[in-house]
Design goal:
The structure is a homodimer of 455-residue chains.
Chain A lengths: L3 H18 L2 H10 L2 H9 L3 H10 L2 H10 L2 H10 L2 H10 L2 H10 L2 H10 L2 H11 L6 H4 L6 E3 L4 H10 L9 E5 L5 E6 H6 L6 H4 L7 E2 L4 H10 L4 E5 L5 E6 H19 L12 H29 L6 H9 L2 H25 L7 H30 L3 H31 L4 H28 L3
Parallel strand pairs in A: 1-2, 4-5
Antiparallel strand pairs in A: 2-3, 5-6
Helix pairs in contact in A: 1-2, 1-3, 3-5, 5-7, 7-9, 8-10, 15-16, 17-19, 17-20, 19-21, 19-22, 20-21, 21-22
Chain lengths: 455, 455
């Protein structure tokens, strides 16, 4: 056995080489032997056409494993290019929670057709899961569980486990219920195996184990898993009936999402920002934050104007420009932090690679340009109306646009360059970006103002 | 069985009530019946004396479970108040990885005495673990594992499991090795139980499972767990010999730590910042970031001075003050973000509660005052030496100190107030704090400059 981290890169290369050679036999072998997560990672780099080709070479079971490993946006694109008959097969094999996730992502019309084509039992399960809020325990639980009546013995429990072997993977616990399906306790597989075969489950089980209600928010679910070091936990409905289980792999993603969400919110971006591709969509999500700051910094300008009166004349154009220093700095700071947070987050999760540098630069500077333009037009209008100086409004708006465009570039480039030289992008980015944006921004701003604003 | 989230609060209250009543019998019962994580949580609120009393009422085994659940600073204080003989007993019962963690936290002299008092086998294990870097796979692995030779059968594997039942908890996998101890594969407990008792392990095991090297950084370990949805993974040395295992509960904390670390670094604080109690220690950790920004913003002032020439006279004192707008804003922004990040992080992890508001305000404003004073003295010196205006240096330095003190207060109060009104502190804090600090800061700054700087 070799270490996984080293193997991954080799896998990825092979997939592309084999595609070029059209060696379907070799491809089939790789697709069968490699871990689904590795295949999913390799898939991302392929063209839409090659992706469909690759999925076609897999068994439905394999395809379902690989689809589960893909991220939202990637999966969405792939699914909508797949033949619907094949899709029904693939989704039918998935665990209920994964099936519900995938169907929840489909366009409504497609989802309806898929649900109509699914066999009765699976349909029932997916419908049950779709009823719960996506971010609650009910939304992340799986319905596949091993449950046994409390009056049964350890030997009988192992028999149930054997019968369910095809349906339920990763069994760590056996859930013990009464005749009405009410959860009474939990017995770890280890305890059941080590108990006397004739011991009753009610004697083996732990009655004090952690139980999760379907309505519990996923962040609180994650907190319970962390606090009590859980690997899996049963989920019950309002009457205490066992309805599903949550496993720790679902929670790992929740922990990362929730911590990340806190910070990306502070920076005025969203987690989807990393995978989202439309410049206008990203711009519109980030803009409200910039507008809040814009309004605030216009108040700053008003405050400054109270202390620093502006007359007219060349030097006073420079003084007029100083009123908007807080605005320039705050905007450049926000745009720089938005870009750098997206990059740092993406580098940490592995969603952004150094080889994407060019693509990221184009995307982030486009977003900075679009939002810069909105803010610049607003500033130009405010100065024209408020101060009756339309010409200076145009000059300052133009200067602001250039400063913000540069701030977007710096925010993107600095973390990528630090990563390139093996410096932790997070540790040096904060003060570095803010401060260098301030200095650079002021030089650009005043150079433009003094050269074209002086006439 | 009831839901854990509701039960917790009741437990905490009971512990304090029973202590007051000196009802040791009832306390012993609670301490035996409740989950170690709940006891640890209740313990935090007690006085040092009560903590020792409570630990004294537990069995050594229980005490070891509770100690493992406590956070760094809390554990450090408790351990150093405990009787060393009792401590040796408690540490002796812990899993090797936990024991190594606790000993790693002790003062060197105490650690040496504890190690000297430990029995041979445990001493050996802890020594092995302490050799690895704390943030690598070797540093977070446990040495307690169930390993079986590949030539043995499923029935023999279950026998080994039975023999190790007292030593190893939470067995999900049986690790299969050859005669030299080289890891050959992994068999899940489920697969071993379901296999024919006479089946050889080499037929049951998975040869392609994920294997982790002792030197792998813990962040990469966490990435592997997430990518491959692992519950446990074997750790091997450079020769491929099985040396330990990592379980997912260790990794959950790593995921949260690493994501959090990325962001707290961007804000110029550390994760320890939340639990650290010494104002001077916190100040000194945060200061370097502020100094980086100070140097950068002095360059900003130089740039501004190039475009906005300063003569002497009353109005020109106001113009002189504008040169330092970038400095004022950047410093207030950084100090506000440092405070608010600590509070938001602490609220999310549950380390900070609304009832701590008073204590946090005092702490954060003290830190802002200490660092504000350092920066203010620097500014005063720079203006006196660079611009030969010692009086204005004093005025601007004083104004800066007040602005920074207020920024620390705002950064602390805003997230706490938002939380109080059930608004997510993260979503509204970013732009709110920065912008309000800018407006407030400018008002304070110019009010002080124009009232005492004009003479």
């Amino acid at each position: 056995m070799s270490e996984k981290t080293k193997k991954n890169n080799m896998d990825a290369v092979n997939l592309e080489e084999l595609l070029e050679k059209k060696d379907n036999a070799a491809l089939r072998k790789v697709l069968k032997d490699q871990h689904a997560a590795d295949i999913a990672e390799a898939l991302i780099r392929l063209s839409a056409e090659d992706k469909i080709h690759i999925i076609g070479l897999m068994s439905s079971e394999r395809a379902s494993e690989v689809l589960v490993e893909l991220d939202g946006q990637e999966r969405y694109e792939l699914i909508h290019n797949l033949d619907e008959k094949k899709l029904v097969q693939i989704i039918g094999i998935m665990d209920s929670d994964d099936a519900a996730d995938v169907i929840g992502e489909l366009d409504e019309e497609v989802a309806k057709r898929i649900l109509r084509a699914m066999p009765g039992k699976e349909l029932q399960e997916v419908r049950t899961l779709l009823r719960h809020d996506e971010e609650t325990a009910g939304g992340i639980m799986a319905l596949e569980i091993v449950s046994v009546n409390q009056k049964n013995t350890a030997a009988q429990a192992l028999k149930v486990l054997r019968n369910k072997a095809g349906e339920v993977d990763d069994v760590y616990n056996i859930y013990v219920v009464d005749d009405a399906g009410i959860l009474k306790g939990i017995a770890s597989l280890q305890d059941v195996v080590l108990a006397s075969p004739r011991a009753k489950l009610e004697k083996i089980m732990d009655r004090e184990a952690v139980v999760i209600h379907t309505d519990l928010d996923q962040e609180e679910v994650a907190n319970l898993f962390q606090k009590y070091n859980l690997v899996a936990a049963p989920v019950v409905d309002e009457k205490g009936r066992l309805v599903g289980r949550i496993t720790v792999d679902d929670v790992l993603h929740v922990v990362e999402e929730e911590v990340s969400e806190d910070f990306t919110r502070m920076a005025g971006i969203t987690d989807d920002d990393i995978s989202e591709k439309s410049v206008f969509k990203i711009s519109s999500v980030r803009l409200p934050w910039l507008l809040v700051a814009f309004v605030g910094e216009m108040i700053s300008a008003k405050v400054l104007n109270h202390f620093v009166p502006v007359a007219s004349g060349t030097l006073d154009n420079i003084i007029l420009a100083t009123l908007f220093i807080p605005l320039i700095m705050a905007m450049a700071g926000n745009i720089g932090i938005q870009s750098s947070t997206v990059i740092i987050r993406g580098l940490a999760t592995g969603d952004i690679h150094l080889r994407d540098t060019g693509r990221r630069l184009i995307r982030e500077s486009s977003v900075a340009f679009v939002n810069g333009l909105v803010i610049a037009v607003l500033l130009c209008g405010m100065i024209a109306v408020w101060m009756h100086q339309p010409r200076m409004g145009f000059v300052l708006g133009f200067a602001l646009l250039i400063v913000l465009f540069v701030a977007g570039l710096t925010g993107t480039l600095v973390p990528l360059i630090l990563k390139r030289f093996h410096v932790d992008p997070a540790i040096a980015t904060g003060p570095f970006i803010t401060t260098s944006n301030d200095v650079l921004g002021l030089i650009i701003y005043y150079s433009i103002v003094s050269s074209i604003g002086g006439a």
